[in-house]
């Protein structure tokens, strides 16, 4: 009955995670999936989260259904973290808890498809691979706007601006407010301003995907684009996630927010709930209750911000150590571009063939596109990774 179905080739990121788990080599290094590992190479359980967990477990709460929109305390905390005081009294925000950032993207995509069945979406070239899957899965034609300049290895400002200026009116445009996945390349604020002007002139519907708030320059700096769009009174969507910043990957804790030009959000809020009901009825409880507990308690919130800063600083230190190590090992090559990238990912410029050799010969796992997760590096594996990079970059 199902013979006509195509074989699933597997996911380029999650598939690699499975392959890594099977690899028996003791010196293997996982720089594939976007997961923060600590200095000892483990996924941390943040002390603030552990404390909240102890308290919540001690309460032995019964597990009724959450409403379609999720936990009220969690939703309030999400709006404060993303928008701070940028939402004017004459504007509104509707927010729902979702099954991770991916769930937020999918519910948002379904809602946009209902609102504008004929619109197309533009994503950065390149973007997170699953953006394509999610938006195509929701029935959208997905186009790309220039983003990473292959020669300069920096943001292609002229290319992106020119593309934005010629978008069909009412197009949907996906932006990464910080820590771009997969390149780590980020427009400056001076560059964002004309880009937003162009999007507003084309009446584009902006969809911001922010999965790494606090991993770039800090909680407020990383949310600048969200707040700038709000200050401009734009109508836009935000998909956000606590997978990385709370180290709660498997709990699937995300949110979809919609900023509206009037305070009346009932219509869009209803549509968000409708699409949740049709997809999965209501979100799970536990992860969101951990986040709500930490963010809602002044002491735990401060503690978490400190833990987040430690993760950010470790990522920054590992990026600097990688660049220094590569420069020392391969003085004829230019690695300066890597130092300017932001967040968890580095776009190394390695080819798919070089990445394959990295894995096969050296046990170093990266994504085919040359993306590596800097947060997989530590003092113990850095030397091995630098030697492996040097070997593939100098191979005849
Ligand atoms: C990544 O980009 O590696 C992460 O966001 C994990 C995922 O789901 O792909």
Entry keywords:
396 residues; single chain; 7-stranded mixed beta sheet; pyridoxal phosphate; globular; alpha/beta; 11 strands; 45% helix; binds (2S)-2-hydroxybutanedioic acid; 15 helices
Structural class: alpha/beta
Instruction: Give the termini separation.
Output: 50 Å
Q: Characterize the largest beta sheet: strand count, sense, and whether it forms a barrel.
A: 7 strands, mixed
Count of runs of 4 or more consecutive helical residues: 15
Task: Name the average pLDDT.
Answer: 96
- Number of β-strand runs: 11
Give the names of the bound compounds.
(2S)-2-hydroxybutanedioic acid
Strand fraction equals 5-15%
What is the approximate shape? globular
Poorly predicted segments: none
Helix coverage percent of residues? 40-55%
Which sequence of strands runs across the widest sheet?
Answer: 2-8-7-6-5-3-4
Radius of gyration, CA atoms, in whole angstroms: 21 Å
Return the string of H and E elements: HEHHEHEHEHEHEHHEEHHHHEHEEH
Question: What topology does this entry show?
Answer:
Layout: H1 14-22, E1 29-30, H2 47-59, H3 72-83, E2 92-99, H4 100-115, E3 121-125, H5 129-137, E4 142-146, H6 157-165, E5 172-175, H7 189-201, E6 205-210, H8 219-222, H9 224-231, E7 236-241, E8 253-260, H10 266-279, H11 286-296, H12 298-329, H13 336-340, E9 345-347, H14 352-362, E10 364-365, E11 371-373, H15 382-394
Parallel strand pairs: 1-10, 3-4, 3-5, 5-6, 6-7
Antiparallel strand pairs: 2-8, 7-8, 9-11
The chain binds (2S)-2-hydroxybutanedioic acid (LMR).
């Amino acid at each position: 009955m199902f013979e006509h179905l195509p074989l699933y080739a597997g996911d380029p990121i999650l598939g690699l995670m499975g392959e890594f788990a099977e690899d028996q080599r003791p010196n293997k290094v996982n720089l594939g999936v976007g997961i923060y590992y600590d200095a000892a190479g483990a996924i941390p359980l943040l002390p603030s989260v552990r404390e909240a967990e102890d308290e919540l477990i001690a309460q032995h709460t019964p597990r009724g259904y959450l409403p379609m929109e999720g936990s009220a305390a969690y939703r309030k905390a999400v709006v404060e973290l993303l928008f701070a005081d940028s939402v004017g009294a004459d504007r509104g925000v509707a927010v729902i808890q979702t099954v991770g950032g991916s769930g937020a993207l999918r519910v948002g995509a379904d809602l946009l498809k209902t609102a504008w069945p004929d619109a197309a979406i533009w994503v950065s070239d390149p973007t997170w691979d699953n953006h394509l899957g999610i938006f195509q899965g929701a029935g959208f034609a997905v186009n790309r706007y220039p983003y990473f300049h292959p020669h300069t290895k920096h943001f292609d400002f002229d290319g992106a601006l020119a593309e934005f200026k010629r978008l069909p009116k009412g197009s949907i445009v996906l932006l990464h407010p910080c820590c771009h996945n997969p390149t780590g390349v980020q427009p400056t604020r001076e560059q964002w301003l004309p880009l937003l002007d162009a999007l507003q002139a084309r009446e584009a519907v902006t969809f911001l995907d922010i999965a790494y708030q606090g991993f770039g320059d800090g909680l407020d700096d990383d949310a600048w684009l969200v707040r700038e769009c709000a200050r401009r009174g734009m109508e836009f969507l935000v998909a956000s996630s606590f997978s990385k910043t709370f180290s709660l990957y498997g709990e699937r804790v995300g949110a979809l927010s919609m900023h509206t030009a009037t305070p009346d959000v009932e219509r869009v809020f209803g549509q968000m709930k409708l699409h949740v009901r049709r997809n999965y009825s209501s979100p799970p409880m536990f992860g969101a209750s951990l986040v709500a507990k930490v963010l809602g308690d002044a002491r735990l919130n401060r503690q978490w911000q400190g833990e987040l800063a430690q993760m950010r600083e470790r990522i920054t230190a590992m990026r600097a150590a990688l660049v220094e190590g590569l420069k020392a090992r391969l003085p004829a090559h230019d690695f300066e571009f890597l130092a300017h990238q932001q967040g968890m990912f580095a776009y190394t410029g390695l080819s798919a063939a070089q990445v394959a050799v990295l894995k096969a010969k050296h046990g170093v796992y990266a994504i085919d596109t040359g993306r590596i997760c800097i947060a997989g590096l530590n003092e113990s594996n850095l030397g091995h990774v630098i030697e492996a990079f040097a070997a593939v970059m100098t191979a005849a």
